[in-house]
Amino acid sequence: MNLERRLRTQWTEAAQDWVGQDQVLRTGLLDSWMLDELGDVRGKRVLDIGCGEGRFSRLLAGLGAEVTGVDLTEPLIERARGMAVGGDRYVVGDAESLAGIEDESFDLAVSYIVLVDVLDYRAAVEAAYRILKPGGRFVVCNVHPMRSAVPYGWINQGNRKLFYAVDNYWNEGPREFPWLGRNFVNMHRTLSSYVNVFVASGFALEGMQEPTPSEEQLVEDPALDDEFRAPNFVVYMLRKPEL
Ligand SMILES: C[S@@+](CC[C@H](N)C(=O)[O-])C[C@H]1O[C@@H](n2cnc3c(N)ncnc32)[C@H](O)[C@@H]1O
Fold it and tell me: What's the whole-model pTM score?
């Protein structure tokens, strides 16, 4: 199967197992960083691009946003529709085009660990730019490029994690790894490639975060201590300039 087809079908195959996954890195670490960066979402029109089964969309709707979740994977969208909380709606669609979504119609766009799954990430960034109102923001959380270079790259000695291996960093492209009982593919690109694509698409880069746990999060889940050892995620804060 070619790479594009594989990226477009692997989530349908994994949907059932993904829904049952423990989302501890999201709920215990990343959500608070994302919510901080998104700010007050009350009354805002938010597009959650690659919303999956809608967990984060529901969270934003619960905070008063008017959320549209879009995802390529039909079983995940069906599940999201079944769990809608009010103020959230879900459509099947491709992040690379966001076809059917009007130009300049959203205040905020969110991409929560999705760009590693997308083949034409330039097209996806340009589509997000298109649907945002002038002055609108795009908050992107992604696997850190230092991780996506070598997925599951911990080098262990017995039970002890010695260090995280980074290799072939400038060799952009697919990385295959075992996950959810099957072989999964993520796309690796360098940090500078992402930043250059954001800027070339017209976005202003207003900041970046490399999330680490707070004291409270560590008390909740001491295993998150590993997040201080090697970067795992990155959050980019982008703005479409005012006219
Ligand atoms: C890691 S999951 C993240 C889901 C959700 N954002 C979350 O954090 O729970 C990646 C999601 O991207 C979706 N996806 C992959 N390629 C896509 C594309 N081209 N267009 C829209 N969604 C896509 C998958 O179906 C999957 O739901």
Answer: 0.97
